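We treat protein structure as text, and this decision shapes the records that our systems exchange. The remainder of this section carries one protein's record, kept here as part of the documentation:
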Amino acid sequence: MTFRPINDDHAVERCEFAIGLNAPLSPRETNLIHSRAALWCEELPAITVSELDVPTDPVAQFIIGPNNVGLLFSYLRPDGSAVWSMQCGFNEILITATRYTRWATTWSVAQTLIAKVLSVLQNPQNPRQVISVALRVRDEFYAAAGHQASSALVQSKFVSGLVLAQDSTWHNNLGWFEPISDSPVLNHLNISTRNDTFGDEARRSLQISHLQQIRLEDADRPPLIADQSAAAAAVDAIELMMTELHIRNKRVMTELLTPELASRIGLRGNP
């Protein structure tokens, strides 16, 4: 069989939405977010408080501070894995969805959570500001064991024919910058194949992880979050940026995949 997406109509295994603030959360702010958990308890009823390790692969532009207490709010499956989660730690608000339907539906949930957290953080005396907006999407496909990725990917500026012709598993890592307005956007594109099993079936998996991280220049940053109206304006600005990152991710995936596979997951139709 040729490569097919992990879902019937899309290949998204997980989607991560992140914002980076201009300074790490203080203990007071961490406690404040914890105390207001009722605002999102319907979406994320489980709460974990723990000391965070510094991530090796952060999503948003990262700032480390002395307060390493992190909050993890989540909606869990019976096996304990998270369907949705929101982690608040250091200067990052990170929302992860592992049940993706379509962009509009998934982003709507993430946007609501971001709006609620920013409303909690509003402070006229020491207002926060968003300095980074990031999106990471991981797509996954699978085929029979030993299948070459050339049946799923086309030779392009993102991946060479030498890699595609490999019978063995491989990894391709690429990074570049491109602007949005005056702000640089870091892109990390990681593509890899691996051998695994599903039940008694040996198969080959293809994973594509695309991180886009906007490092906002002063002129492009949302307003200082001093009050509710400023928090709402920041959310509106974040929505525009996330939508642009989504469009750019679709363009990259369209260039990577064969036309048949791109059509199958909706890249040549609805988002």
